[in-house]
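Many introductory courses stop at the sequence. We go one step further.
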Amino acid sequence: MNRILLLEDDVSLIDGLVYSLKKNEFDVEVARTVCEAKQYLSELDRYDLLILDVTLPDGTGFDVCERVRKENQQIPIIFLTASDEEVSIIRGLDSGGDDYITKPFKLGELCSRIRALLRRAGVSKSEKNTSMECGDITIDLLGSRATLKGKALDLTSAEYRLLCLLVRNANRVVTRDIILNELWDDTGNFVDDNTLSVYVRRLREKVETNPSHPEHLITIRGFGYQWKEVSI
């Protein structure tokens, strides 16, 4: 169960948030002031994600975020803000936030964003190594580059993410639903099923000797795709 620290001073909002997050199988701890949050964050490693209100009685969520980022660059941070003004959004992202959601918001939307960020954070934790190798494919995780037999592959961002997901799960079937969720982009747009087919076809053209008879990227009809660890 993922543990979330919620920094919020609105009691009525806290009750609804805690109820909804727990119902969605998140473990939640609540701080109501910046001072109280700092006490919780003295054990930052206990948490998987932070939800920070912007305006608080003794400071701002921006201050807390900047403090956290000095210790931990990876933990996902979502801002809750009553303002959708661009300056507020930019301030939040500049201070190190990963996402923001404007009040009032739908709890389902918040939970979706939490899961997306936790998914990405989980990938980052599992990829502490700077590269992945699988057969004749090498992926440079720091540089976001991939090579096939030492030759650089010209991949789009989506193709690169798709390749990383498949290689990370080499020799296992990855369902289309999992892939579609992983390719959820930073603007909140979901990749549809037809677009995924295009990504797969284009990726095959770049990694297969004969894209019509793939040996790496295999379609498992009715389920999804499988990356086979072979050298071509």
